[in-house]
Amino acid sequence: MVMDRGRDKEGAMTRATRSSIAVLGSALVSALATAGTAQATISSANATNDGSNITYAFQYSSAGPYYRTYVDADLNAGTGFAVGGVGADYLVENGFLYRYVGPGWSWTQLSAATYTNNANTASWTFPRGSIGETSCTNETAKVVFQVELSGGTFDTSSALSHNYVPCSSPLFDSLTTNDASNVYYSVQYSGSWSLFHVFLDTDQNASTGYATGGLGADYLLENGSLYQHTGGSTSWTWTNLGSVAAYSNTGSKVNWTVSRSSLHETAANETANLFYHVQSSGTAAQLPVYTHVYWGGSGGSAGPTGTIVPLYSDPTSPAWSALIAAKGNHPSVPVVAIVNENNGPGTTVVPKYTTGIGNLQNAGITVIGYVWTNYGARALADVENDIALWKSLYPSVTGIFFDGMAYQDTSFVSYYQALDSYARSKGFTYTVGNPGADTLPQYVGTVNTILVYESPGLPGSLPSWHASYAPSNFGIIPYQVASPDQSFISTARQTIGFIYMTNDGADGNPWDSLPPYMDALLADLQ
Prior knowledge:
The chain is an alpha+beta fold. The chain is built from 7 helices and 35 strands. The strands form 7 sheets. Strands 1, 4, 7, 8, 9, 12, 13 and 14 form an 8-stranded antiparallel beta sheet that branches. Strands 28-29-30-31-32-33-34-35 form an 8-stranded parallel beta sheet. Strands 17, 20, 21, 22, 25, 26 and 27 form a 7-stranded antiparallel beta sheet that branches.
């Protein structure tokens, strides 16, 4: 039954003086904290700013009466309203900004926000001072977007890190959205520049395309033209594909409209990494890398499910070459390899690891480095040291694997948020956590992907709450599995974005070889 949420006749939250939100029943508060539907439909999530204002925007497929942005301004999941793995200190709902006062669903209205909602895109702008984020150099927040649908169900995004653009930045207020036919890029700027760029890594593989700014750019927007990279990773070699669909540069704001087909981004589940960039007379500036999760699509299937492979063997072993061969046979399947030199990066460069990692990346495999966290008990500084060593010893590695991730209570949410932020500060773009068992919703968003099953045999069932979030948040790595089960994979991929399995493990170590069916597994994941 739908609970009375205290709505007034105008559809706003009932307030005694229109300045506070009443406390809800515990069942509904719990529903909000783990909110979602069978398939999360929020995408194109944007959190940006200039020196004075913050702008949040997202696109959605399922409309509802209430649109929200939750803001964890103190980066502490243990304070504020628990939702989507963060502790929200502030809330923007429809046209109003609120501050959390607790307990339960209890908020105080602070002010109105500039709010628009059309063409399946919700957007808010309000002063930074309203939520105390006024530092010009080092503000960071976590943001969760949500649509409350008719009938009391919810679509909730994963947590998005908002690393504020410094006030001194000549680039600010970037916005990336799309519809079924086009992608829309925009950014504001100060100063005088001759070249305006968007670098686009459409295959999300830093090892392909032009290596720049933390990604491998497959396409480039330069002023009004679109280019495709055709040279080596360090070669400025591009083919001009012609003019974009629309380009404007007026009032210190640049806008591009680019057809999705020209970027080969036409499926229903496309994602791309990108950054905005300006240049003039040897001087340049760029914004941080942003991941655009496309809204809608012009056709295509749901796309392949990926796999995360614990590659805990010597780089000269047959397992490494077998994984490269399987990837070559199924290039569309995202493959992530976890490498582990010595329960971490070791202390000195091992040449065969350098060579092996390069071979994996040349095959289009994402490589991430192993670190142990002991379920949150290992000192943060020690884990950060391992992260830093991966970057210094093997700089081409693009992600970090946090083994032994806490999962039984929420005490360590901030610990993993801090590690994720540190990894990204070192230039890593992808993080995976491994509790080896089902986690809690509060941990979703602390890393990109959480491995929620590491046990013998296939899981008998998967938790239903995972459906509240995008499948890319979850992975499984069962072992002692004789052969791939197509029926299981078909069901699991609805909520699990990364599936690996192996027949190994009877000897106590499932991760020192590849299964003989590796190629067949990737075929099933296509």
